[in-house]
């Protein structure tokens, strides 16, 4: 006799009931999910989709697009022309540039068309700057941009200290002399970004004295009453690996009268000629036989109504190491060389030595009075009638010709020698 197995039926029935229950749960869950996606008006998309959010944001965004240079976080930025703010699709309304370390605000100017802003002057080296710029588009929608950068450090940059000064008037012998604060290994690159021109039309060529000095001069002395212009376009120019220039400067100076004073050591006289006419012949006392004066063309590079001269500073010492001379009030002194050659007044020597004996340690001495206040003395007259850049030409001395780089005395080189020291040629 077969006995029915009821458990299978119950099992199948239980499965069916469970499926029905689960189906209901899933249905409810699905309905609940659909309800959550309806917005307050009952439509689909409660909380907007990402595309809708982006579309709404774009509708409110300003068309003004601000660009700040240098870019945020930049280092070794230039101090002349690197900093700039520009805008497209709108106009700048406000730009604030500060140096947070000092609290200083950098003045600047928005262009008339509102499209750009630049600082009013040169920035400082090794300084962090912050810029905040604001602009609006044609619909009045505002845009803001921020940037922070650091300018180049002295260790990674170089500058050139030049003479003569901007706006000065100098004599016909004055070269343009530039002394760089770092050694220049890429001389051609540096020299090609420096130009010296004259209204006289004279050809001007640069000559390197070592790695840190570059002088410019024409073949002959400058023409009187001309104007010379020096342009330093060195911003961003590399002098050596990792060392770049930071100068963007134009300098002009005028050439005054032509004055050349010729010292005749043997005859102990100096003849002063201006614009081709002899002004005066002066009795002098040049260097002694033991300490003769250099020969050559020397340019007056500095003037002092009074100055101290100590022999120890130029190698003239006694057995105790003290200076062979130490005169605290030398009158009417004008420098002719870096090594200590001057033409100056002499009040300590007897009147009888001038025109009769050479007694100095290498300088050219003119009769003068202590205190530098007697205009009737030869030293005072020559001082008042000389300008920086005038020439003093020494002849007849038993000494050698002065080296061209000892002072501003490149005139003692031939033109071929001068051009030969140029990194860019003639």
TrEMBL record:
Keyword Secreted: no
PROSITE patterns associated with the record: LD_TPASE
Protein name as it appears in the record: L,D-transpeptidase family protein
Superkingdom of origin organism: Bacteria
Keywords, comma-separated and alphabetical: Acyltransferase, Cell shape, Cell wall biogenesis/degradation, Peptidoglycan synthesis, Transferase
Sequence segments annotated as region (Disordered): 35-56
SUPFAM superfamilies xrefs: L,D-transpeptidase catalytic domain-like (SSF141523)
All residue ranges annotated as the L,D-TPase catalytic domain in the record: 259-395
InterPro entries registered for this protein in UniProt: Big_10, LD-transpeptidase, LD_TPept_cat_dom, Transpep_catalytic_dom
Residue positions of the active site: 344, 363
Pathway(s) per entry: Cell wall biogenesis; peptidoglycan biosynthesis
Cited PANTHER family: L,D-TRANSPEPTIDASE (PTHR30582), L,D-TRANSPEPTIDASE YCIB-RELATED (PTHR30582:SF2)
């Amino acid at each position: 006799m077969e006995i029915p197995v009821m458990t299978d039926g119950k099992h199948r029935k239980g499965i069916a009931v469970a499926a029905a229950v689960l189906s209901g749960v899933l249905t409810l869950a699905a309905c609940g999910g659909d309800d959550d996606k309806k917005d307050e008006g009952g439509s689909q998309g409660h909380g907007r989709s990402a595309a809708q959010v982006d579309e709404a944001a774009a509708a409110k965004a300003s068309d003004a697009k601000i660009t700040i240079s240098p870019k945020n976080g930049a280092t070794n930025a230039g101090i002349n022309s690197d900093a700039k703010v520009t805008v497209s699709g709108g106009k700048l309304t406000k730009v604030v540039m500060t140096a947070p370390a000092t609290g200083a605000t950098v003045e600047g100017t928005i262009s008339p068309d509102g499209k750009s802003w630049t600082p009013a002057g040169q920035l400082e080296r090794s300084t962090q700057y912050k810029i905040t710029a604001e602009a609006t588009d044609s619909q009045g929608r505002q845009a803001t941009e921020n940037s922070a950068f650091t300018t180049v450090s002295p260790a990674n940059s170089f500058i050139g200290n030049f003479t003569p000064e901007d706006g000065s008037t100098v004599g016909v012998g004055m070269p343009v002399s530039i002394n760089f604060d770092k050694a220049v290994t890429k001389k051609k690159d540096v020299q090609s970004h420096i130009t010296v021109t004259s209204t006289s039309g004279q050809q001007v060529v640069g000559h390197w004295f070592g790695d840190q000095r570059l002088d410019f001069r024409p073949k002959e002395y400058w023409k009187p009453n001309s104007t010379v212009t020096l342009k330093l376009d060195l911003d961003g120019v590399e002098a050596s690996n990792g060392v770049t220039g930071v100068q963007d400067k134009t300098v002009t100076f005028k050439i005054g009268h032509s004055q050349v004073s010729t010292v005749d050591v043997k005859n102990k006289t100096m003849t002063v000629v201006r614009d081709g006419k002899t002004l005066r012949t002066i009795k002098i006392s040049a260097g002694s036989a033991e300490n003769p004066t250099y020969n050559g063309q020397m340019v007056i590079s500095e003037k002092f109504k009074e100055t101290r001269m100590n022999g120890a500073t130029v190698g003239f010492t006694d057995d105790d190491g003290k200076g062979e001379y130490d005169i605290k009030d030398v009158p009417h002194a004008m420098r002719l060389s870096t090594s200590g050659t001057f033409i100056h007044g002499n009040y300590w020597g007897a009147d009888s030595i001038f025109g009769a004996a050479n007694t100095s340690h290498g300088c050219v001495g003119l009769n003068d009075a202590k205190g530098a206040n007697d205009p009737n003395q030869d030293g005072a007259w020559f001082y008042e009638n000389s300008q920086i850049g005038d020439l003093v030409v020494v002849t007849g001395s038993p000494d050698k010709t002065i080296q061209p780089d000892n002072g501003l005395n490149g005139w003692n080189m031939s033109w071929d020698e001068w051009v030969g020291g140029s990194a860019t040629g003639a």
